[in-house]
Amino acid sequence: MTRVPAESWRNPASADLLPQEDASGALGTYDHRVEPLQPWTLGPRGRRWFDALLVLSLSGLALFHWAVGEPLNAVVSLSQILPLWWRRTHASLVFGVVATLSAAQVLVLGLHDPIIGQVAFPIAAYSVGRWGGRWARPVSLVVTLCACLVAGWAWSSWAVPDERLSSMVAPALSCAGMAVSAWALGVAGGQRDRFVRSLVDRAEQARAMAERDVALAAQDERARIAREMHDVVAHGLSVIVVQADGARYAAAQDPAVAVRTLGTIADTGRASLTEMRRLLGLLRTEESGVRPQPRLDDVPHLVEEAEAAGMTIEVSLPQEWPLVPDGVGLAAYRVVQEALTNVRKHAGPQARVTLGVTVDDAVRIRVTDDGRGAAGGGHGAHGSTGAGTGHGLVGMRERVAVHDGSMSAGPAVGGGWTVSARIPL
């Protein structure tokens, strides 16, 4: 038995699936420490050498017939032994040739005295049992049994006619025991080879499926990052555009307001660029970011940015933010962010916004404005039905649906637009 190093066996798609503890005892990086044991087998070169030594050694023994003055026995033995060189690649043909030459031996020499070439028959039977075709194996067994009967009959030729039938039983059984045992060992070896090949095929299929799952997971992660990028860019640019428009109108009357507004624009632009660089880094390196994702308790920052951009907003938020799962918190944060971004883009000037967030058995979000977004075909060009093709609302629905939540967006009673979402905990 040989131990195969883990580095040469490890599955590249699942090699990093076993968690390892760091010095502090916490689960850290993943590594593969399994070193499987494999049965000892000959390689292609070893098999060639084995067959060569087998044929050469038996041929050398067959030449003893020549040395003792039996050249015909030596020729017959060599004719039976030499085909064994091709027993792995043409097992059925080799068995047929050896069986035919063994039958010819009975006609030419008889079986009164054994010869070295008779050893080739059980070897050929083993070979056809292991490497022969599906139908060659049962046919070779029948031929083997018939050959043993013929050999037993020939070996009992010394007996008187009345006792010959009983005298052939012992030699026929001994010949059949050796030849059939060799055939059975070959069949068992062939079954083992097929079983090992099936295991290898399954391992390859598992590796391919693992690689496919990794690729799908990477694709999903890239899609998530793309949605994050859309939210960051849309929110940051909408704040910058609104602030720039306000600064342009205020610069002539109150330069101080323009200065403050330009500072807000610069801060918003820098924050957006920082987050975009982080997301682009994720796309390039496929590593986890070092900056934490926004959470539910970061919603007040969105309100501050909206008010700084000149939006009139009335909020109803929890006094103390409860702990919610990170995924739910991020989804709620992005829903509020996208809703406020759509208000800036589509509700028009002087729009008033009402934002409410409650947390009980679910995170409930409601953003309502009294602008002209619905009447003007705004809010992602959804028109009066709220069923358009804007990426913002589609992204919000996808985020909420991931957590088995529900979301609706459409015109509000009395004018304006309402976005409502429920994300269960």
Automatic annotation (TrEMBL):
Q: What is its EC number?
A: 2.7.13.3
Q: What InterPro entries does the annotation carry? A: DUF7134, HATPase_C_sf, HATPase_dom, Sensor_HK_TwoCompSys, Sig_transdc_His_kin_sub3_dim/P
Q: GO cellular component annotations, sorted alphabetically? A: membrane
Annotated GO molecular function terms are: ATP binding; phosphorelay sensor kinase activity; protein dimerization activity
| EC category | transferase
- Which Gene3D superfamilies does the protein's record reference? 1.20.5.1930, Histidine kinase-like ATPase, C-terminal domain (3.30.565.10)
Q: Does the keyword ATP-binding apply?
A: yes
Q: Residue ranges of the Histidine kinase/HSP90-like ATPase domain?
A: 331-425
The protein depicted here goes by the name histidine kinase
